[in-house]
């Protein structure tokens, strides 16, 4: 998994080139804006939808809906764009949605493995398809799958994203890869030190904007799949209306992992420069509340100007930390046997 994480910068460059070669921006800008954009995908392939929505931001002139299931909502029709993303090109939920989109006459854009069932659906519908050279698990190819979606957002004029931006993002992921390289010791390696913070804890991971919430969800999912580890995802302000009460609960009072004193619960807050002023106040107050109750807190700040750069700093770190946490527990980060077994159990 570590080599795949280290390849993130290369994946941004390859994903960008693939999207440009497939003419994504031109093909999407040629039709005028759709009424709504639906991004369909599950697991790691769905994260690009969160990233697209975050780069488009709150001021987006149309709804951007993330769909992580089988059925296209009834309101979706011919004036809408459905973007179907699947690393393998064969996730049943995504294929089901892509097929319904074609049947309803929606515009379709596919992103995923070449020569896959998803490519066949797109090709048969004469829809654009960005074939990216996915190798192994989709989560190890996030940037190959997500970068074309940001190119699509730029094509739809939902975000500013040019070649320079993708190069800056690639450089920032390279920088993270250097700082998190295996030979670098924990005290200067942010990936290892975050893994040490998370170890022996039940992390409650909060985003404070669409940018850092996308990264928070990615961190939680990477903890599950790489480290086979539980985590609770939340975002402010919503988490202040429910999850915050866990600061007073049993997980905050004792360490379920050991007989030693200490606390299981840990609050992990992913900060952003672009927070609603009330969310900023809520974040500061929540962190103080956690401190007052002795709940340990890890605060991480997204760095950069463009939302994609800010997501890259946190996602790059999340990918390393989750892999180092797995390795710290002597767990192989790559296999996901529970998912494989589950798929086998429901296969006809
Ligand atoms: O990413 P695709 O291939 O669409 O598959 C969807 C998801 O399937 C799951 O069961 C896992 O394997 C995920 O890593 C993957 O993202």
SSE layout and pairing:
Elements: H1 2-6, H2 8-21, H3 24-29, E1 37-40, H4 47-56, E2 64-67, E3 81-86, H5 92-103, E4 107-112, H6 117-124, E5 129-131, H7 142-155, H8 163-179, H9 190-198, E6 202-207, H10 210-227, E7 232-235, H11 250-253, E8 265-271, H12 277-292, E9 297-301, H13 307-328, H14 337-346
Parallel strand pairs: 1-2, 1-3, 3-4, 4-5, 6-7, 6-8, 8-9
The structure holds 6-O-phosphono-beta-D-mannopyranose.
What does this structure look like?
Keywords: Isomerase. It comes from Nonomuraea phyllanthi. InterPro entries: Glu6P/Mann6P_isomerase_C (IPR019490), SIS_dom (IPR001347), SIS_dom_sf (IPR046348). α4 (about 45-55) runs antiparallel to α10. This protein folds into 2 domains: about 1-165, Rossmann fold, CATH 3.40.50.10490; about 185-330, Glucose-6-phosphate isomerase like protein, domain 1 (Rossmann fold, 3-Layer(aba) Sandwich). By secondary structure, it is of the alpha/beta class. The protein has 14 helices and 9 strands. It has a 5-stranded parallel sheet, sandwiched between helices. It is globular, with a radius of gyration of 20 Å. The structure holds 6-O-phosphono-beta-D-mannopyranose. 6-O-phosphono-beta-D-mannopyranose binds near residues 45, 88, 94, 137 and 339.
């Amino acid at each position: 998994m570590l080599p795949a994480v280290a390849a993130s910068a290369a994946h941004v460059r390859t994903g960008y080139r693939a999207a440009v070669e497939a003419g994504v921006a031109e093909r999407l800008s040629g039709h005028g804006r759709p009424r709504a954009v639906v991004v369909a995908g599950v697991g790691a392939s769905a994260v690009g939808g969160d990233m697209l929505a975050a780069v488009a931001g709150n001021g987006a002139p149309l709804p951007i809906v993330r769909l992580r299931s089988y059925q296209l909502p009834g309101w979706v029709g011919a004036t809408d764009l459905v973007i179907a993303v699947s690393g393998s090109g064969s996730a049943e939920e995504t294929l089901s949605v892509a097929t319904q989109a074609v049947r309803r006459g929606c515009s379709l854009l596919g992103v995923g493995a070449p020569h896959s069932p998803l490519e066949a659906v797109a090709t048969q519908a004469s829809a654009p398809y960005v074939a990216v050279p996915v190798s192994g698990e989709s989560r190890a190819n996030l940037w190959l799958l997500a970068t074309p979606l940001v190119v699509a957002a730029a094509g739809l004029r939902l975000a500013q994203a040019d070649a320079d931006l993708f190069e800056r993002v690639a450089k920032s992921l390279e920088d993270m890869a250097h700082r998190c390289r295996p030979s670098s010791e924990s005290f200067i390696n942010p990936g290892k030190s975050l893994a040490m913070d998370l170890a022996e804890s039940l992390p409650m991971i909060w985003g404070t904007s669409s940018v850092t919430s996308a990264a928070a969800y990615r961190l939680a999912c990477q903890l599950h799949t790489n480290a086979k580890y539980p985590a609770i995802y939340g975002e402010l302000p919503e988490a202040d209306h429910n999850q915050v009460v866990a600061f007073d609960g049993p997980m905050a009072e004792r360490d379920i992992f050991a007989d030693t004193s200490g606390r299981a619960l840990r609050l992990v807050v992913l900060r952003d420069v672009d927070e609603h002023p009330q969310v900023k106040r809520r974040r500061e107050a929540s962190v103080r509340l956690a401190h007052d109750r002795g709940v340990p807190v890890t605060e991480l700040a997204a760095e950069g100007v463009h939302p994609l750069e800010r997501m890259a700093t946190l996602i790059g770190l999340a990918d390393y930390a989750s892999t180092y946490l797995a390795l710290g527990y002597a767990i192989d980060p790559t296999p996901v046997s529970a998912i494989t077994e589950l798929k086998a159990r429901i296969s006809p």
